[in-house]
């Protein structure tokens, strides 16, 4: 049975506060003008909150999609460190750094996501940078800078976004360059020797040419230390930059060329053992951020993640109703990742790894905006490669180093269209569809070498090959999946302040191959390995109501959804016995379409201007996600058989209840003769019990609440802002992931990773 916990901060307390605001939901964006200065917020004038959830500018309160948006100015005032912090205030959403990484993103929305970032797996939540789909999650956890807004769309978005967005999409939207010279800087100092600096500048070179760029440096010491090497643990050492050039050779043509790069030199993030060493007797450390891990290098490199990309955007306005867009982009990233599973000084279970990804994509869009009909149609193509190699160095009765190579090519194209027809001023219908062809070709190699010194590919040329368990080359592993995914919608404006909508959408994520597959010891036949795992689909019905009251001083949204999830791809790492002695001597990846599930939920967001000085925002969400079928291979009467264990399986990273409540008080306060506004903003964020895997584990995180507080002063002309930000003021220790392999190695593996402790930082921003 799943363990129960005592909740110290009951959900109903936050829920009652939010429901008191009129029971609904609001995207919390703050719009910005072209120059980047904050415009009126959503409370004062909901009409200025513009999002591009349907690939065209629309009023947030009018768009029939569950979307939450955060403006750049709002993120600055709250001292939001990176994208993972946004999940605290978004319904049914989990965003976090993947286990044993600093900048790889694990994202789940409404129960759908992907925890393992290996080649061959693509997330069920799409990550987008200015309409550019990021095929891989490496380097996706970046600090927030140079953004106009961030949009989080919930539910299947396959019609317009495609590429596996069956759970939802996260969109970074960067600022367009202003018509005047704009230079701004930000400095941050804080706990753990935090020191950050961001410089952004743009200027017009002529009436038709503008240039801009940002450079950012993010650094802080570790929350803990490596007690063996003395290195930092949970530190940050990241540099990021972005350049762009915009051209308007004619009033009808807009061109943007952009490039960005990120370099993460943080120390390897190692976990905290929650059990005593089985052989060594090593005790549990008192500080959950400390470690004894001795693996610090992979392929001769310390932990490092580098990512860069470029894009070219062309927009041409044919006439006031018709426009065309072309988006061309390419990206690459490379990660050296030394992962010490046992987190002990001994060589017991270690995985030095290298991940490399590259992609090229091209999209053409045609947008029509008429009085009765509005819509978008287009063509999309992507050519991507995901490559990883790693050693599994494992002590035990049979000390060995297993080399694994996964090389996955993806070529996919799609045609799509989405149109909205207005019957009258109140009633409108929408119809959309996407046809996708997804081709994959893979190479998988798995070899076992004697001893604990690694393999030739990972730096030990003298290693002795014991045997090859799996060897498939390109051409032996290939599959092609085709799917049409429709979407239907209805929207009804019941009054000037209330919009009702209903939609049905189908999401699709292509099949593939597990790069860790092993045909020895896992009961996987060669035929099964060659077939790979099948695509998964989700059918989702959603009902929503978006409302405003009291002259738009109160804005609310409510959404109900019911989804059927089929052929759920269940990736997992299992202990295997490859030599038949009855004891696990290795581990391998086993990915099956074991599951069928039903997912139902409720989402409420609300925002209210209670007085001219006091505003409150909040959200409450509930989700009931359960497997109706979860097949595993078990011996029944000595004969292998498929057994349905759905009653023993859970949805990972999907807390049943979550809530957030934020109150902000603004007070006019001059400083040194300069008029301005002093703001006090405090929040409480609640997450219910969270399972880390599809099964109950001691690493599961009981319900918890985080408290934040920000004090900021902003000058009336928005040129100066100073802030003091406290995060996790209760200093709560909460687990975000971990590894469970109790029978591998001599010490056993039960290792956890944790969210950040209490931190306090001070920021100063100046706009020249």
TrEMBL record:
Specify the protein's topology with respect to the membrane.
Answer: Multi-pass membrane protein
Q: Does the keyword Membrane apply?
A: yes
User: A Pfam family name for this chain?
Assistant: TonB_dep_Rec_b-barrel
Q: Which UniProt keywords apply?
A: Cell outer membrane, Ion transport, Iron, Iron transport, Membrane, Receptor, Signal, TonB box, Transmembrane, Transmembrane beta strand, Transport
| Residues of the TonB-dependent receptor plug domain | 60-169
In the UniProt record, the signal sequence range is: 1-31
Domain named TonB-dependent receptor-like beta-barrel: residues: 271-729
Q: Where in the cell is it found?
A: Cell outer membrane
Query: Position of motif TonB C-terminal box?
Result: 751-768
Q: Which PROSITE patterns match?
A: TONB_DEPENDENT_REC_2, TONB_DEPENDENT_REC_3
Protein family: Belongs to the TonB-dependent receptor family.
Q: Tell me what this protein is called.
A: TonB-dependent receptor
- What species was this sequence derived from? Massilia antarctica
